[in-house]
Amino acid sequence: MKFVLLLSALAVGGVFAIGSPSDSAGPNSRITGGEQTDPRAVPFIVGILISGSNRHAFCAGILISPTHVLTTASCVSNQPILTVLLGASDMTRIQEFIGVANILIHPNYSSLLNRDDVAILTMDRATPLNEYIQVANLPRWGHVGNTFNGFGTTVSGWGNTGNRDNEPVPIPNLNSIRTPVISNTVCGLSHNFIRDDHICTSGDNGGPCDGDDGGPVTITEAGETIVIGMHSFHYSGLFGCDRGRSAVHIRLTSYLSWIEANSNAVIRT
What we know:
The protein is built from three helices and 17 strands.
């Protein structure tokens, strides 16, 4: 995977900007098959700039408390230098740049076995909260054991569209796609090492691509947006990402105890 990241960061009236090529802002610049997202629709997604890694230059994450971000261990396993971008649905106007003081990798993480791909980042200061920056609603304890099979989800990120080579990441605007949860049995037809702590979504109409790792997978329940998954990996084929192949995410109900024990996140009943 090759990521191209342009970091001409400017402070403009207290709001930061990252310059991006104008040709990546067209109607096809989206999570594969997705649509541009309202800036206030996913206020808990964050971007993560990664320095010193030979695998990733950019990933997404989920704000789980004013000081903690959940992301994939595969993005940060070699302990790189990280910067969290908050309020960044429009990458040309980023509200907060915050450094990372600590990276905690799940103790059972294995990239070879696609196991426990979870990490918690502690930022070096608390982020202010507003309509563009909000803490995510994680699954409740009562959701444990729910497969969510057949639920409609929204998957969001700034990753490649999968439609052309060398597309800059992140793309300028946050994009999302609606796609249903499929059973792990069906998911296993596309991927090896599918586990109970994975949750999969259909790739028939598109899905997450390179640069979307760590991004949220959400459902709506009683009018409330709940993050049930975090994108972990996908199939990157000759003709793009997840064309007919499922996308694999971390099932967050499997990690509520670990998240609660290692962050200030609040897990509701």
